[in-house]
């Protein structure tokens, strides 16, 4: 994620010459103080102050420069004074970067004994932002409105969330996804329009023969394999059969070779997401389990069975949650615990669950897979952390993409499961198992998703709004009748 260090968001202050040069000088001084303070809070992306925007030409130039500056990933617009919004039309109609309307003012409190007309003319966010807000709405332009005083901790936290979304949008526009093999045969939901996805999201999806991956694996040196195995031994609790002189020790070296070859292929092609499938393994000794888990933990997106949409979304959430403590993973609703009034979902996949969500040190084990016709694969086994979480998925509805996000409560496993051979999570659905499950199915939610303990639905809604895709949120107050109506209305809205 080194690219994050080079990104910046531009801070643009709207005003006009009506109030005189002394007033504009004070506006500029206030803006400098705000930006300095925000940057001192160690934001996710650096904030860069731009010259005051006081004329249509200045605003147009700033928006054009933002479009053409590769490391500028968004604009924060603040109306310190009144800024007649017709000045913004030319610039905003051309702006193609995310926009945040920062509804703040310099002073937190009204100076009760000193307030006069000069103060009123200068501190007009309440006034000027409504003019600006109308124009952005009139243009039907997506933006985020952030309300509150700029020194407020809550405001800074909300700003950080928006900055994370900006970085994610930037990354998706530059993302390349490698597919080794095709979709799992006869599966519907993992299919989709890759051309439309590139138009809508920016990322490209291209397929490669498994033999090309095998070529990269065969070029890995024995010394590098041995070094990586030593890293495995330091990082995880190995079962006896994988320890030195263990009967399955060779499989651990095979996994290390696959991981190094896979990573080398991805790095050489500048790919940050990938897919594979157990139906296309020619030349591989085992389906990559441990290698995929470890690459996800390093920030790569992944989708099983050729699911490139989920691979892209895993990468998006990995970028969005970078540096946060609880983790995110490729996931699948696998099986249920139907204890009456305490129904639980066991989330897992046959191998590829990211250890960033692990509650304890993972166990490195080897178990039969039962499908794919290859040697037994290694994998990390663990139980996920607990807390508030989401499952998110993007599906292709034919005439549009739909993002579906479900709120969850991740919980402890009810009992020990000594024979469960995969990393896994347990969760309760909102508002309950019945409605939560029906809502996901009615919305067309995929069996693959991204499970995150760090990201919430509001951040994903902001992402969907910028992409102009449909957004369905399943939450504590979801009612099926209202959801069904929402889905019907959306059919009309997107037709």
UniProtKB/TrEMBL annotation:
Cofactor(s) listed in the protein's UniProt record: Mn(2+)
Which Gene Ontology molecular-function terms are recorded? Answer: L-arabinose isomerase activity; manganese ion binding
* Biological source species: Lonepinella koalarum
Name the lineage. Answer: Bacteria, Pseudomonadati, Pseudomonadota, Gammaproteobacteria, Pasteurellales
- What Gene Ontology terms for biological process does this UniProt record contain? L-arabinose catabolic process to D-xylulose 5-phosphate
Record text on cofactor binding = Binds 1 Mn(2+) ion per subunit.
Indicate the segments forming the L-arabinose isomerase central domain, all copies: 176-323
Q: What is this protein called?
A: L-arabinose isomerase
Every L-arabinose isomerase N-terminal domain range: 8-172
GO CC annotation: cytosol
Q: Which UniProt keywords apply?
A: Arabinose catabolism, Carbohydrate metabolism, Isomerase, Manganese, Metal-binding
Known pathway: Carbohydrate degradation; L-arabinose degradation via L-ribulose; D-xylulose 5-phosphate from L-arabinose (bacterial route): step 1/3
Q: Which reaction does it catalyse?
A: beta-L-arabinopyranose = L-ribulose
């Amino acid at each position: 994620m080194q690219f994050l260090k080079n990104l910046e968001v531009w801070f643009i202050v709207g005003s006009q010459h009506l109030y005189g040069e002394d007033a504009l000088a004070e506006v500029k001084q206030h803006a400098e103080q705000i930006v300095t303070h925000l940057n001192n809070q160690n934001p996710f992306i650096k904030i860069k102050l731009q010259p005051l925007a006081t004329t249509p030409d200045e605003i147009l130039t700033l928006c054009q420069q933002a479009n053409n500056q590769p490391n500028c990933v968004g604009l924060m617009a603040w109306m310190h004074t009144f800024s007649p919004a017709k000045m913004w039309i030319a610039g905003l109609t051309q702006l193609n970067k995310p926009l945040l309307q920062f509804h703040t003012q310099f002073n937190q409190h009204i100076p009760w004994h000193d307030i006069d007309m000069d103060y009123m003319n200068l501190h007009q966010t309440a006034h000027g932002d409504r003019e600006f807000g109308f124009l952005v709405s009139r243009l039907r332009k997506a933006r985020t409105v952030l309300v509150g005083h700029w020194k407020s901790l809550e405001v800074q936290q909300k700003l950080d969330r928006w900055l994370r979304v900006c970085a994610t949008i930037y990354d998706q526009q530059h993302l390349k996804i490698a597919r080794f093999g095709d979709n799992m045969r006869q599966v519907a939901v993992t299919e989709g329009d890759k051309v439309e996805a590139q138009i809508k999201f920016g990322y490209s999806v291209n397929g490669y023969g498994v033999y090309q991956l095998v070529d990269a694996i065969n070029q890995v040196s024995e010394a590098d394999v041995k070094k990586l195995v030593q890293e495995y031994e330091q990082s995880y609790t190995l079962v006896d059969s994988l320890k030195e002189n263990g009967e399955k020790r060779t499989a651990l070296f095979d996994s290390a070779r696959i991981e190094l070859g896979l990573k080398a292929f991805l790095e050489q092609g500048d790919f940050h997401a990938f897919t594979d499938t157990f139906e296309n393994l020619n030349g591989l000794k085992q389906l990559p389990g441990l290698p995929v888990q470890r690459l996800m933990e390093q920030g790569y997106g992944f989708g099983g069975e050729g699911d490139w949409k989920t691979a892209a979304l895993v990468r998006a959430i990995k970028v969005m949650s970078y540096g946060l403590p609880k983790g995110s993973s490729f996931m699948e609703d696998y099986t249920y615990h139907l204890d009456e009034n305490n129904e639980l979902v066991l989330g897992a996949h046959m191998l590829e669950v990211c250890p960033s969500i692990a509650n304890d040190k993972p166990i490195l084990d080897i178990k039969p897979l039962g499908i794919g016709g290859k040697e037994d694969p290694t994998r990390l086994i663990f139980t996920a952390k607990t807390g508030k979480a989401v499952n998110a998925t993007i599906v292709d509805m034919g005439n549009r993409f739909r993002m579906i996000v479900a709120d969850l409560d991740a919980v402890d496993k009810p009992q020990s499961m000594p024979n469960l051979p995969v990393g896994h999570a347990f969760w309760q659905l909102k508002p309950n198992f019945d409605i939560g499950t029906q809502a996901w199915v009615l919305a067309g939610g995929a069996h693959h998703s991204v499970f995150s303990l760090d990201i919430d639905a509001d951040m994903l809604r902001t992402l969907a709004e910028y992409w102009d895709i449909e957004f369905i949120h399943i939450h504590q107050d979801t009612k099926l009748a209202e959801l069904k109506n929402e889905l019907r209305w959306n059919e009309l809205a997107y037709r």
